[in-house]
Amino acid sequence: MAGIYFHIPFCRQACHYCNFHFSTVLSYKEKLVSAIAKELFLRKDELLGQTIETIYFGGGTPSLLNEKEWHHMIDALHKNFDLSHVKEFTVEANPDDLTSQYLQMLQQLGVNRLSIGVQSFNDEHLKWMNRAHNASEALHCIQHAQNIGLSNISIDLIYGIPGMDDITWKRNLQQAFDLNISHLSSYCLTIEPQTVFGHRMQKNTLQIPADETSEAQFLLLQDTASANGFNHYEISNFGKPHHYALHNTNYWKGIPYLGIGPGAHSFEPGMRKWNIGNNPNYIKAIEKGDLPIETETLSVNNQYNEYIMTGLRTEWGVNIDEIQQRFGESYVASLHKQLQSHVDAGRVLFHHPNYTLSKEGKFLADGICSDAFIL
Predict the structure, then answer these.
(1) Fold of 2-252
(2) Which residue in 321, 331, 313, 373 sits closest to 352, CA to CA?
(3) Which of 170, 182, 326, 361 would bridge 243 by S-S if both were Cys, CB 3.0 to 4.6 A apart?
(4) Are 232 and 241 in contact (CB under 8 A)?
(5) pTM of the predicted model as reported, rounded to 2 decimal places
(6) Fold matches, 2-252 and 300-372
(7) Which residues have a Cβ under 8 Å from the Cβ of 34 and sit 6 or more positions away?
(8) What is the per-residue pLDDT across 245-294, written as a single tens digit (0 to 9) for each?
(9) 245: phi > 0 → left, psi -120 to 50 → alpha, else beta; which?
(10) Burial group, residue 338, by CB count within 10 angstroms (0-12, 13-18, 19+)
(11) Would you say the C-alpha torsion 160, 306, 328, 317 has a positive or negative sign?
(12) Helices (H), 81-183
């Protein structure tokens, strides 16, 4: 099985925390859509023999595409790939774009799952992050989607926002769960260089909460999600039973995927590829029939480290029998040695044959994974 990811690199305005590849210049949106359609043709043989189960449009803001642009890409997708086995077709969207008419158009295109960038139900927080929508628009778009039958809805929420207390965070969470969504992705605010917040940090005009505050909000997130029937199946992801994100789960399980569009990444066992993250240069190359792709062949150590990094973040953890089969006994011995202190401290659990993170260990996932790497 396999998936196809589309990166749509346009946003109406720049969120102060975002460092993804995007542009607010929308004048060449139609040319880029045509280039994406042509890239599908140029790469139509890369998934031969694979059953395509998931399609994911991310960004950027895919919901900035108009109906003509959507049809151009979806028609090209159908012409070049067999989509008869697709189980999940996800589109990321901003609340201010999701009118009832737009939602109906997406549904007619075959979209059966929405990932909505709510981020907060607090208008002050939304303004501070420079989001284009308000809390009322977030509430209404979710209700509109459910009313037309698009009930498989994930929303994003951010915690670790300066000045946000636990009461406000819990109110945010309960508002999400009261909407009867099926999936939640929640992230701690991270300050990246070359963003508005990054520049403010450099000037000492922005202070982020202490780790203890963010950890407390993460634990509150876990408890509230569990109380509302959600499984914490990946560090940042919570789903009701049978509503896990299939596309992203396949990422974490090492399933191949094809990335289309500027800045998009592709993966196949032992190899990673990515398109140039420059919109004009991407368009020029594709128009000439060239693929602006860089490729990295992963060493055995890198493949092992990726398995550890993606596996430990999930409820399934990492399996020592699989490590033995894929990498050999020395890697199993290394893992036992490197994780022992975390097991002793209760941050990692070992139930043969799997290592998983404990509730407390999940907040420290990056450091624990790094400790287990082989350099």
Answers:
(1) TIM Barrel (3.20.20)
(2) 321
(3) 182
(4) no
(5) 0.96
(6) no
(7) 72
(8) 999 999 999 999 999 999 999 999 999 999 999 999 999 999 999 999 99
(9) beta
(10) middle
(11) positive
(12) 100-109, 123-128, 135-147, 166-178
Phi-psi category of 103—alpha, beta or left, where left has phi over 0 and alpha has psi -120 to 50?
alpha
- Written as one letter, the residue type at 24 is T
The pair of three-digit structure tokens given for residue 8, joined into one six-digit string: 């749509």
Report in angstroms the alpha-carbon separations of 282 from 55, 155, 357.
Answer: 21, 30, 40
**Domain parsing of the chain, residue ranges:** 2-252, 300-372
Which CATH number does 300-372 carry? 1.10.10.920
Q: Tokens standing for 255?
A: 């399933």
Place of tokens 């398109």: 275
Q: Which of 161, 155, 132 is nearest to 142 (CA)?
A: 155
The CA distance from 18 to 171, in Å, is 24
Q: Angle at which helices 166-178 and 211-227 pack, to 10 degrees?
A: 30
pLDDT digits (tens, 9 = 90+) for 130-149: 999 999 999 999 999 999 99
